Amino acid sequence: MKYYGKLILVSVLCLLVAVLVILTNGNKRISFASGEVSQVVNEETGESPKPPEGYDQEKPVLLIYDPQEELSVLYKENIEDTLKYMKRSCETIEISRTESISYRNYEMVILASQGIETKLKDGAGRIFDYVEEGGKFFWGILQNEVENEFFSSYKKMGVIDYGDYLSFQKMEFNEELLPGMKGEVFDSPEFEDVCLFVRLDEEAKVYISADINDQAIPLFWTYDYGEGRIGCYNGTAITGDFYKGIVSGCINALYDDVMYPVINAKCIYIDDFPSPQYESTSDIVRKDYNRSVKEFYRDIWWPDMQKAANKYDYRYTGLFIATYNDIVDPDDFVFEAPSMEQYYGNSLLRAGHEMGLHGYNHQSLAKAGEVPDDMGYKAWGSADDMAASIEELLSIAENMFPGISFSTYVPPSNYLSEAGREAVVRTMPDLTNISGVYTSEGEEGAVYEQRFEIAVDGIAEFPRVTSGMLLSDFERLEWMSALGLHGVFSHFIHPDDIFDMERGKGENWETLLEGFEDTLNHVNEAAPGLRALTASDGAKALEVYQELEPVLVYDEGEIRGSLKNFRGEAFFFLRTDKTPVSKDDACLITSLGTEGDGPYYMVTAKKAEFTILLKGD
């Protein structure tokens, strides 16, 4: 009995210690690697906040598409991606099979096919009846012919007159479709598209116009019909990958008030930094700055880059590459440390930035036939050889930068084979994220294309959206579209742009720097308060976003939120024409865009349950 009594006493003491540990660590503050971003992480207990009062299971969005239409299939996939990012449920149906569908069972209907005239067997009338009773309909693409269905419906869409198909390459955002977009003008052959000449009822709200010989043709507008609302996109380019954010803006415009979670991150990657490229020679900087390449980078380029980061609040992730040889046989690996690599690496780290891995050399981790021949790269013989190159790079890095862990990998020239990815994951013990590209559109060959997501192996797939110091109109639209959907600015720059005629466009460093700073400032104006993160911080932010399961109830004059898997902070974009005010300290609200008074806001949830009051009309 004495033995059992002692055992019970010990058990009770252990239980008390365990309870004490839970109480003192249940809200443990865990900092990201950079020390800049921290969050309260609540351990999973199997419990979650109750859904807000008045919550009813959200109806899904119905997406109508045509599997026989290539453009429709692409558009369908991009809309599905968009809705997934916005954490909205979606069901799809072929355009020829809508007869059995009750549209009233859906929150919104989206048309992603150009075949409404010939393939929508039950006609568009039922959809407009659904809208008249309070439904939402996004006519998402210009039809390839205008006949009976359009003729019987166009006035219900706010059109009072229409004419011929017209080509255009210039468009203007008349309203804030996404944060910071009002007043933006985009003009380039890359935007070439076709629209239908239309004149609209004065009650229609035009968000985007095509500019054709100084005549504004509505490109996207909304129109209230009965108790519901219709949105019409009068073009076809919206089907592209970079228009996903534009799609989200069109969806948002169908609501008076709408919220969706975002990642909230701005990340900048520096290609080949540190690397041996600073040992090269060039007449350009000798002529303009009376310096060698080494002196230019040391005295001008890197100090200016650090000033830009500090002035505009950004964090860099430099991508270490050891050598530019083309050796792909591990038995032949060699390395002679250039004089400046260690200097730049240490300077990068001391300034609070991050160093990721790019490669032992610049040969993409792929076997024969997996990278376009004109890239001039050598193929690796096996995944083991690829892994050996990463091991060699880690060994070099340990000698040059002792004690530094590497969480980020960016594939050279954006090519990374399946075997190459496996090699990277296998050999980088601290790997948390890989950064490829947001889309393969415009790229040559099978580049490493990504979605913003956590892969099944736990690695964050965090793509770069744009690159360069001087952005074209199309690249400007790319980052604004991605920012509006994901709450992310993910950008890639090359230190040698001044020496590259294609990227640098023959401009001097002052012009390149001015273009870069203009972009940094533009992002800050569009989304004040966007968090400056390194790549590894961005990976953690993506994980927090992906795990979050929000439940939102839109009621008269307020929005109530309940967050499952809440980890201390969560971020949303809110679109409303009213004035949003937090009911208490459960959330913070910041206006987005250049005008400072909405309609877009950043909501920072500080608690798992919050209420936002919507004041005014």
Automatic annotation (TrEMBL):
One of its GO terms (biological process) is carbohydrate metabolic process. This is DUF2194 domain-containing protein. The lineage of its organism: Bacteria, Bacillati, Bacillota, Clostridia, Lachnospirales.
